[in-house]
Design a protein that fits this description.
The complex is a heterodimer of chains A (115) and B (116). By secondary structure, chain A is mainly beta. Chain A is built from no helices and eleven strands. The chains are: A mainly beta (115), B mainly beta (116).
Chain lengths: 115, 116
């Protein structure tokens, strides 16, 4: 079956702009999490959505937001972009707890460059 | 306090040798899961292996095995018979309270280079 997909794969924006990234989870997976990866800070958790509700949130400013749709697809939005937002943004999906709960698979990521 | 510690920033290993990547973790939660991911230069995080805190046996997946020592809070990844394609960054991650929480906390990673 298809893996986690993320669009776009690459994005270049300028400071002050906003950006929307999209993530489609594996079929049957209802939880979607977002991570930011930078050389300086490593991999940091942004937020997690399940059944269209944000269940968990990392330590990021309010400029970072997200949502999940009824088909489990998720989007994250970053407003008023700063140079430090340049990063690889990774999305991960997983099933409900229970069967095969060890699954937590990542998409290929969106590489955002802010100029 | 750092929850996941990977003390080896980089390793060089001869092809076909076995390699052990270290990972220690810190949690007071009795229920947790430990993951290892491989990240090639393309950036995608590839799931390798999982160990649940209540699992009695060490996890194995093909050439990958996890040396889980619960009392020492250690979850080292062992790759047998290394291949050139194993060259990548490797991340250890933990998910606390298995149910209802999907947040992964990652270590800083180990860059593994396989030498022909």
């Amino acid at each position: 079956k298809a893996g986690v997909t993320q669009t776009p794969r690459y994005l270049i924006k300028t400071r002050g702009q906003q950006v929307t990234l999209s993530c489609s989870p594996i079929s049957g997976h209802r939880s979607v999490s977002w991570y930011q990866q930078t050389p300086g800070q490593g991999l940091q958790f942004l937020f997690e959505y399940f059944s269209e509700t944000q269940r968990n949130k990392g330590n990021f400013p309010g400029r970072f937001s997200g949502r999940q749709f009824s088909n489990s697809r998720s989007e994250m939005n970053v407003s008023t972009l700063e140079l430090g937002d340049s990063a690889l943004y990774l999305c991960a999906s997983s099933r409900l707890p229970g069967q095969n709960y060890n699954e937590q698979f990542f998409g290929p990521g969106t590489r955002l460059t802010v100029l | 306090a750092q929850k996941i510690t990977q003390t080896q920033p980089g390793m060089f290993v001869q092809e076909k040798e076995a390699v052990t990547l270290d990972c220690t973790y810190d949690t007071s939660d009795p229920s947790y899961g430990l993951f290892w991911y491989k990240q090639p230069s393309s950036g995608e995080m590839i799931f390798l292996i999982y160990q649940g805190s209540y699992d009695q046996q060490n996890a194995t997946e093909g050439r990958y095995s996890l040396n889980f020592q619960k009392a020492r809070k250690s979850a080292n990844l062992v790759i047998s018979a290394s291949q050139l394609g194993d060259s990548a960054m490797y991340f250890c991650a933990m998910r606390e309270a298995n149910f209802g929480n999907e947040k992964l906390t990652f270590g800083t990673g180990t860059r593994l280079t396989i030498i022909p």
